[in-house]
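Minutes, project check-in
Item: structure for the 491-residue chain
Input as provided by the requester:
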Amino acid sequence: MSHEETQDLNELKKVRIDKLNELKAMGIDPFGQRFERSATAEDIHQQYQSYEGQTVQVAGRIMSKRRHGKAGFANLQDFSGEIQLYFRKDDLGEENYEIFKKMDIGDILGIDGRVFTTQKGEISLHVTGMVYLSKSLNPLPEKWHGLKDVELRYRQRYVDLIVNPGVKSVFIKRSQIIKEIRRFMDESGFLEVETPMMHPIPGGAVARPFVTHHNALNMELYLRIAPELYLKRLLVGGLEKVYEINRSFRNEGISTRHNPEFTMLEVYQAYGDFEVMMELTENLISSVLYKVNGTMKIDFENTAVDFTTPWKRQSMLEAIQEYTGLDFNDIRTDEAARKAAEDLKVHTGKDASRGEIINEIFEQFVEDKLIQPTFIYGHPVEISPLAKRNREAPELTDRFELFIMQREIANAFSELNDPLDQKERFMAQAAKRAGGDAEAHMMDEDYLNALEYGMPPAGGLGIGIDRLVMLFTDSPSIRDVIFFPTLRPRE
């Protein structure tokens, strides 16, 4: 904001503070008390015949105002929408009309008024009484839209919600999506649970954690990167179908698809596997979309996406072969894989394994081709430390990721329940960590101890709720679907 703009805002604010003091001098509390409403703007518009001629009480924010001599109009906005107000000096009296004259756009008022239709056919309230509920000292922006203001919109979401009705609709839909996810999971026999958000050992994903310190216990704790290992402890304990809609935290980059604090659905089902989770994912997402949007098709960034089931299923190696021509069934050694990566100009570490290279090539050559809902399965074991090995190809795992519009939306495994294999994989991850990989898994002895009591074969699933909301609301950035996204501090 320029110096001139700041100066203008300060002047406008000073005028509003002067009006605030004038209201106080009139004996009016500019920051009022409880107000009982009998109707909303939407009620009056939708049920006009039953409200016509009746006196109602509404409350909300003044969004526009215009005076015509001894009369005037204003628009009042509440959560449901807007209603026009008609003020007439002869009806209100001198003092109330003075209040109307001092009223600024952004002020919050309680209104008594009679419902009628103007000569121009607009449903309105003929105001008979009003009370101040909150005086707005900051003027609302007149031109809030536009790229230059996009970061300000995220920083001041409270203003964004006031002046951009479409923003509110996105967050209403977000709540509906989460509600429908809960309904689907509950009706499918899953138990909603809560697990810790502070972990002594971070686990359940390959990610860098946030670190904090507990003074009384004098120990480091980590904000959870995933709830997985605690939810699987519940499977050991005999809870056979569990889910958690959880907030997780990862200390990594910020982009249009990543926020350090994000929301996931995690699901675990004893005696299932990744194919059971695939069917669950397909049914859950398609059901929620139909309930919330009333259709199985969406437009996202001007691209039509069809959620009609069944969705495409393709192995990671098949997808790589389709888009690069490489057949990793014939590339069996780490050295041969590094040579193949070099030929594709894919940069890898000098000690990169075949599995790590497969994943790198997939990310660079395949992910951006996956537009329609597609299950990619058969991930290398090196990048899947918690997934069960595939019986026919032990270097791969029974795991899938769901991709829609080039984005990973879901990740699922046949869960590894062999404590000896799990210990070996933890040790391999610990070696990576010792070599400087801050995202590698730590050794979790208590989780291994739990597995040694016996965990049934199980399927596990994680779905990124923020990304799902982005798809269902045609929102290009994750910041558009999180009320208060993480932003760099202002300088």
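Outcome recorded: The chain is about 35% helix and 25% strand.
No further action items on this chain.
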